[in-house]
User: Which sequence fits this backbone?
């Protein structure tokens, strides 16, 4: 689907219709190697490296404002490393999961305290989301914050202060949105897409036309009309409508069901984890990948305002593909570790708060 969706843009920008798929194939090799290595490496090593990985990740986020940072489409999100362009916010996703899994696992006995259960975790989260929201990247900020809050809930943090903290964080994001004219225009266009279909709602309007044109069976592989500059990001954030247009609703539902299957498998792995760290890691990885896919589905179908989040494993983007492969490799290692210990019984996914009180 990437080969089909990127042909027009590749031909116009680089004189090669296969430019993007060739580059993605190279990144795919790196992603498969990363996944294979992570699947063989004992996941407990990440507990010892969590703080160091987090520090490096935050430093990379800050480097987007350095001379090697790239300013593209109104945001500082990328680093130029020789011939490569990487997105530090993608690599911060597994880093924040490792850090939160490490903190929650080692503080289980005192996780209901305000300091260890609320103040410290939100301070750690702030180290990541503050530079990300400053890029600005509201989509990744909300995704990362939601995953970490769910991990905290899973770890047994008291619900009332968690809800209050989460609401305060949402208020801050809303205030920042109102102060950003570009993001506000997207929300306005989302509220009335027909009125703004020739400007800010252009992508959404053509995304819906792609699904409508595809029908049940689609117009056939390679026969999309929307990829001819009607959908500017047809090979990245809006590749799912091209799937719906060329392969039809049946294929679109199949993609959705694959992510549902990944979610269920991830939850099963988390419930069978031998220790708290593995449980938190598996849950965080599962939620990070599937929630990002869910947000992408909602964006391209007009259920939420437009956000720049790729569809994992399918959209063009080397950083996203490598990080997704790495996280899947870690998830596989947790599963393999579970299989090697037949005595490990299934656990409750969420902490028994009544018993802890």
Assistant:
């Amino acid at each position: 689907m990437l080969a089909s969706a990127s042909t027009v843009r590749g031909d116009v920008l680089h004189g090669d219709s296969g430019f993007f798929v060739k580059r993605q194939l190279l990144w795919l090799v790196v992603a498969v190697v990363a996944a294979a290595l992570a699947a063989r490496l004992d996941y407990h090593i990440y507990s010892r490296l969590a703080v160091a990985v987090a520090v490096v990740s935050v430093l990379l986020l800050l480097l987007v404002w350095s001379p090697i940072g790239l300013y593209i489409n109104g945001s500082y999100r990328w680093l130029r490393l020789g011939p490569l362009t990487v997105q530090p916010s993608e690599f911060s996703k597994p880093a924040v999961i490792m850090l939160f899994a490490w903190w929650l696992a080692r503080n289980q006995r005192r996780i209901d305290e305000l300091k260890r259960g609320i103040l410290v975790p939100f301070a750690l989260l702030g180290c990541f989301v503050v530079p990300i929201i400053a890029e600005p990247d509201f989509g990744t900020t909300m995704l990362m914050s939601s995953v970490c809050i769910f991990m905290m809930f899973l770890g047994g943090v008291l619900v009332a202060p968690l809800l209050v903290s989460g609401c305060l964080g949402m208020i801050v994001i809303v205030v920042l949105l109102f102060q950003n004219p570009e993001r506000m225009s997207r929300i306005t266009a989302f509220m009335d897409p027909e009125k703004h279909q020739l400007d800010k709602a252009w992508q959404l309007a053509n995304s819906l036309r792609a699904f409508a044109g595809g029908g049940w069976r689609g117009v056939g592989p390679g026969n999309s009309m929307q990829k001819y500059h009607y959908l500017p990001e047809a090979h990245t954030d809006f590749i799912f409508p091209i799937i719906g247009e060329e392969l039809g609703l049946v294929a679109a539902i199949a993609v959705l069901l694959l992510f549902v299957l990944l979610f269920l498998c991830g939850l099963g792995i988390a419930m069978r984890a031998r220790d708290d760290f593995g449980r938190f890691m598996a849950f965080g990885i599962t939620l990070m990948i599937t929630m990002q896919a869910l947000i992408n589905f909602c964006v391209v179908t007009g259920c939420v305002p437009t956000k720049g989040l790729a569809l994992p494993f399918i959209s063009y983007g080397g950083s996203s593909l490598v990080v997704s492969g790495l996280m899947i490799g870690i998830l596989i290692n947790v599963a393999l570790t579970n299989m090697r210990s037949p005595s490990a019984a299934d656990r409750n996914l969420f902490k028994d708060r009544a018993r802890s009180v």
Summary: The chain has 14 helices and three strands. The chain has one domain: 2-356.
